[in-house]
Amino acid sequence: MTIIGYARVSTVEQTIDLQRDALTAAGATTLYEDKASGKTADRPELLHCLKALREGDTLVVWRLDRLGRNLQDLIRIVGELDERGVKLKSVNESIDTAGPTGKLVFHMFAALAEFERGLIRERTLAGLEAARARGRHGGRPPALDAKQRKAALAMMKNRDMSVAEISRQFGVSRSTLYNIAAKST
């Protein structure tokens, strides 16, 4: 049973010393350190750290926000660790998933995250419904107006110009012209 530490700072100007000291004091014998924004998924040392962990090991972090990019990412990582039999300890939040209280906290996080996703989905659907009721539809506006579409269709039927030439003349892609033709039949 090994205690492995993971530390992350967001910018090159920040120092990792505080986290390193806290993780060492918590018993970490091996440390993995990233200098990357929490928003980026590219955290190579975290990947190495997660691969190094074995059943019975403990991953210790200074704070939970050092581990996950957001709540969903954190819950995903903790869930994967739990499935592998790896415990998580957060020094600042005093959370330890080795005990039932720590596991309860993460189940509460997961429930709150799922609730938040449901609320966001409901609000999005309600907003789309309200916009449709006002006659607005999402998506990009048409590349060509009705008059331009009619002219392009006539040119395509006439066959004096190739579809590529017509697309250059109107400043649209050939697939746009083919889509207009398909919708007109």
Automatic annotation (TrEMBL):
Coiled coil: none
Natural source organism: Paraburkholderia phenoliruptrix
Residue stretches spanning the membrane: none
SMART domains xrefs: Resolvase (SM00857)
Record domain Resolvase/invertase-type recombinase catalytic: where: 2-135
Active site (catalytic residues): 10
Family to which the UniProt record says this protein belongs: Belongs to the site-specific recombinase resolvase family.
UniProt key word Transmembrane: no
Origin superkingdom: Bacteria
Protein name, per record: Recombinase family protein
Taxonomy of the source species: Bacteria, Pseudomonadati, Pseudomonadota, Betaproteobacteria, Burkholderiales
Keyword entries, A-Z: DNA integration, DNA recombination, DNA-binding
Signal peptide (residue range): none
